[in-house]
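Hi R.,

Here's the chain you asked about this morning:
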Amino acid sequence: MPSPAIPSVLFVCVHNAGRSQMAAAFLSHLGGDRVEVRSAGSAPAHTVNPAVIAAMSEVGIDISAETPKALTPEAVQTSDVVITMGCGDACPYFPGKRYLDWTLADPAGHTLESIRPIRDTIEQHIQTLLTELHITPSP
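And the predicted structure, written out as tokens:
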């Protein structure tokens, strides 16, 4: 009997330096090998926001080795769920994909203190997504 397919989730924001990096890290951390996770940006930055790296470090998730990646039509086409966070019309549309848009403040230029609530909201969204994907979060 074939094993069920692993769902694939793509997180997209403009610079792929903040929101989408945090979301991808939370889903990878909590979903483990039960979900394929990608992130990308419509206009990727050169590096991940250092305050975002610090905010994720506070919750035990190291994203210091991550780099922003460019959004490609192939990344969207090969994903089951595409979650946008402010990329607007820059995100290609493919019929049959599940699209979600999470309205979240952009952490660019914000302090660590003001990024924490964004991080915590993203974690709550990820917990809901895991439930919708029928994946029990890792401890």
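The two ends are 29 Å apart (CA to CA).

Let me know if you need anything else.
M.
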